[in-house]
Specification:
Layout lengths: L8 E11 L2 H11 L3 E6 L2 E5 L9 E5 L4 E9 L2 H14 L2 E5 L8 E5 L5 E5 L13
Parallel strand pairs: 1-4, 5-8
Antiparallel strand pairs: 1-5, 2-3, 3-4, 6-7, 7-8
Length: 134
């Protein structure tokens, strides 16, 4: 691995799951797994794990089939994001820039060699617990 790539991807940000059974999936992840709903937008429900410092950990999206739509990875810094984007584009795996969604800034989408879709991002909103959860 080139030394410039080491430590530039800080951690897994979130995963977006597609589900043809959105209410059953929501009940599973909240009632059985203990995640908390933190936002909704269109067919998407944003959930977070107990100790995640970011806005959300999982996105459930109503869809005609099940699967993983996108896995998001947070970079170590804005500069690291720029360097990883340049490396991805040079390797021919880039899709392009996208506007951010709840809790994160602009993302750069790409596919790995197997075709899985990923996003890289830097800007992140930290979770603020509502009064009833403090």
């Amino acid at each position: 691995m080139p030394p410039s790539a080491f430590h530039e991807v800080a951690h897994l940000g979130h995963v977006e799951l597609l589900t043809p059974e959105p209410e059953a999936s929501l009940r599973f992840f909240t009632d059985i797994m203990g995640l908390r709903e933190c936002a909704r937008e269109g067919d998407c429900v944003y959930l977070r794990t107990f100790d995640d410092y970011e806005h959300h950990s999982l996105i459930l999206t109503g869809h005609s089939t099940s699967g993983i739509r996108t896995t998001a990875l947070r970079t170590w810094s804005a500069e690291a994001l720029k360097r990883r984007v340049a490396a991805i584009e040079e390797a021919g795996h880039g899709i392009g820039w996208r506007d951010g969604r709840f809790g994160i800034g602009q993302t750069y989408a790409f596919r790995d060699p197997d075709g899985h879709e990923f996003e890289l991002y830097w800007e992140s909103e930290h979770y603020r617990a509502p009064a009833e959860s403090k």
